[in-house]
User: What shape does this take?
Amino acid sequence: MNSYTLKESGFSEPSLIKSISFSSLPFNKSSIFAIIDITLTGKANSDILYIGRSKRPTRRILGGYLSGYGGRNTKKISAGLFENGYLEKAAISWMLCDKPKTMQKELMDKFILEHGQSPLWNGSKKKNVKVPKKTEPPAKSKPAPTVAKTAKPKRRPKPKTTPKAAAPAKPATTTKPAEPSNTPQAPANGTQKPAL
Assistant: This one.
């Protein structure tokens, strides 16, 4: 798979990225595009560096790849263009399509089938491999030693700030004077006088 096979499937004639303009790109139309290394065209290896898609290709190519704004992969492509010297030798080709995500997946699958890997600037995605569940019971192991927990300090109760209200005083009652008795009475201070 190379730029010739893309052209046969409906892609536009490749345009040099360094000379691309706003009017030459499809404006806000879903499309699939490929960045091509023109120095490799017609040689054994594929000349495709990247297969991408966008609903706004002008914004992605001019604002992302040429200006460096965007996500991790967009910045990687921008760095490849400017830091690795691909600006002079990279071209872009595109094709309008209704389902760019599906079309990109088909092209990527075809590329990987032919070349054994993704294009240079496409991130290599790992396939999710499900690990079968073990049917054997786990082997018994020694229990882990227990670690003594340190006791938390006890909290002191908060002092009560409001005193309890005093019980209401009982009204004074009048009592009859006690009749004198013949038994000696103890003094009020608690000491007793000896009996006579």
Observations:
- The beta strands are 15-16, 31-37, 48-54, 90-96.
- Residues 3-115 form a domain with the GIY-YIG endonuclease fold (CATH 3.40.1440).
- The radius of gyration is 46 Å.
- The first strand starts at residue 15 and ends at 16.
